[in-house]
């Protein structure tokens, strides 16, 4: 009897492991807006849904890091859903206070950019499996605006 239960568990585990899952890709990070007290950045997340029906997104969690430190993190609860058999583009807004940006300016150096890592967790509700988090990360360099860009 134990062998039958183990075979059933293996069968179900194999089927669940081979279920198609949405695929995500971070494509861009850019400066969106500058204000007196902060800078707003925007990350672009493209998510492909392999199913013919929509999938609800439970939440998007994000973490923006530079120079080994977390600059900003947060979650976006219930940001919508993924359309069936399509790639959905989503914007991840990041608001960073200037005092924190100034503290990492030593990384900017002569070329006026900062090295960053953006980590995103996209939690979707898949049939049969339940909540499933797709981890996505992107490393790159972000050009900071100069005074001539601001004024």
UniProtKB/TrEMBL annotation:
Q: Which GO terms describe its biological process?
A: response to desiccation
User: Which is one Pfam family of this protein?
Assistant: LEA_2
Which SMART domains does the record cross-reference, listed alphabetically?
A: WHy
Gene3D superfamilies with a match to the protein in the record? 2.60.40.1820
Which superkingdom does the taxonomy of this entry point to? Answer: Eukaryota
What InterPro entries does this protein's entry cite? Lea14-like, LEA_2, WHy-dom
The record's Gene Ontology cellular component field reads:
cytosol
Start and end residues of each Water stress and hypersensitive response domain: 24-141
Could you say which residues form the signal peptide? Answer: none
Query: PANTHER family annotated for this entry?
Result: DESICCATION-RELATED PROTEIN LEA14-RELATED, PTHR31459
Give the family per the record: Belongs to the LEA type 2 family.
What is the protein's given name?
A: Water stress and hypersensitive response domain-containing protein
Source organism of this protein record: Ananas comosus var. bracteatus
């Amino acid at each position: 009897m134990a062998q039958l239960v183990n075979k059933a568990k293996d069968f179900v585990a194999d089927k669940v492991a081979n279920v198609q899952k949405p695929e995500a890709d971070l494509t861009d990070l850019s400066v969106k807006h500058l204000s007196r007290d902060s800078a707003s950045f925007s990350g672009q997340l493209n998510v492909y849904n392999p199913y013919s029906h929509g999938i609800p997104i439970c939440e998007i969690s994000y973490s923006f890091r530079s120079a080994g430190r977390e600059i900003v993190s947060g979650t976006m609860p219930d940001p919508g859903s993924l359309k069936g058999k399509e790639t959905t583009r989503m914007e991840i807004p990041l608001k960073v206070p200037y005092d924190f940006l100034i503290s990492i300016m030593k990384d900017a150096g002569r070329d006026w950019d900062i090295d960053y890592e953006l980590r995103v967790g996209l939690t979707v509700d898949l049939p049969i499996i339940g909540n499933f988090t797709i981890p996505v990360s992107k490393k790159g360099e972000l050009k900071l605006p100069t005074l001539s860009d601001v004024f």
